[in-house]
Amino acid sequence: MSKLSDLSATGTAVWLDFVDRKFLEAGGLKALVEEDGLTGVTSNPSIFEKAMGHGNAYDGTLAAYDKEHPEAATIDRYEHLAIEDIKAAAETLKPVYDRLDAKDGYVSLEVSPYIADDTDATIAEARKLWDAVDRPNLMIKIPGTPAGGPAIAATITAGINVNVTLLFALDAYKKVAEAYTMGLEERVRQGQPIDRIASVASFFVSRIDTMIDKQIDERVADADAEAEALKAVRGKVAIANAKLAYAWYEEFVASDRWQALVAKGAQPQRLLWASTGVKDPAYPDTLYIDTLIGPDTVNTMPPKTMDAFRDHGTVATTLTEKVDEAQHVLAEAERLGLNLNDVTDTLVTEGVASFAKAFDDLLSSIAKKQPPTV
User: Fold this and answer.
1) 326 Cβ partners below 8 Å, 6+ apart?
2) Distance from chain centroid for Cα 211
């Protein structure tokens, strides 16, 4: 058994942040499930852009689709390719889903980033993608924007699993947890089962440090009077932020409100650590795994980070350690004028824009693969 399997034994589920047709067809995902205890897969527009926008792995499928649907729009052509990959991943993970009784074994597919601020369009697209994939171990990814909250509640009420993406701030996460809870409560009110409804809240990590560290480095270079204090919190804010989110999660799942849903079979909305690839080479390449290990969580890793942890990661329950220190780090960041709220607000906006840009590039590359003329 690998270190990744040991990680799963702590309660931190190992998911792969990567989808690619050649990888799936070569049995790469199946091998990770069997050898490393992998229990989930995430995708996003950037991942699909890298997979579909380069090489010819999808050309045969696309040509066959175009022959049957010569007038299809580019978005439809993309969705056909993406849905095939997601179905294949879901089938590979179905034994995991069955063995764990719907508690894991999920693959995620994201709604269009173009509708991140449109609640009704998000609800409609979530239902469309859910019906198209038609697999019980699918999660629809919905961004944790203000418009996303009511869409999450409605989608959960409809019996659709949800992966909430682009969470950076504790307050945004609390709203997402409320939306999930409201969706389950509405299902109970309607007399619907809730025991096989699943959700994760994807809390992004490394991007916070990247932005905060940039501010710190600029101020240190300018001989800021607080240079030593600034350097002391460098590379620590994102982890501290995540630890406090988990501390709040622990309080919430112990509440009477949540326990009333547990009595009816509710599954917790697990915190999922996303953006766990290290951006700064000065940090250990397993930093955002080693420091965020704890029960009822998920860590979704790009392949390079997964390989690094398998090779030299450290398995220990670290998520609930040094919470007082995490509180101190965030208090120091505030005292030093490193405005975490401004950073997280900016990161949500930039995240939506980044996924939209990747989607633009993806659709452009697919459009260039012209269907046959009639």
Assistant:
1) 239, 240, 241, 243, 244
2) 19
β-pairing, 297-301 vs 106-110, is unpaired
Report the relative pairing of strands 270-274 and 297-301 from DSSP bridges. Answer: parallel
Instruction: Give 48's contacts (C-beta < 8 A, 6+ positions apart).
Output: 19, 78, 82, 85, 358, 362
State the catalytic residue, choosing from 87, 141, 236, 243.
141
Per residue in 305-325, is it b (16+ CB within 10 Å) or e — as a string? bbebbbeebebeebbeeeeee
Using one digit for the tens of pLDDT, what is the confidence trace for 284-338?
Answer: 999 999 999 999 999 999 999 999 999 999 999 999 999 999 999 999 999 999 9
What does pTM read for this prediction?
A: 0.96
Which residues touch 313 (CB under 8 Å, ≥6 apart)? Answer: 3, 4, 7, 286, 289, 290
Half-sphere exposure of 151 (CA within 13 A, CB side): 27
Q: Is 141 a catalytic residue?
A: yes
The answer for residues whose C-beta is within 8 angstroms of residue 120's C-beta and 6 or more apart is: none
> H or E element: which one contains 165?
strand 162-167
| Rounded CA separation 287/324 (Å) | 19
- The sign of the CA dihedral 163, 164, 166, 167 is negative
307 Cβ contact partners less than 8 Å away, ≥ 6 residues apart:
none
3-state secondary structure of 110: strand
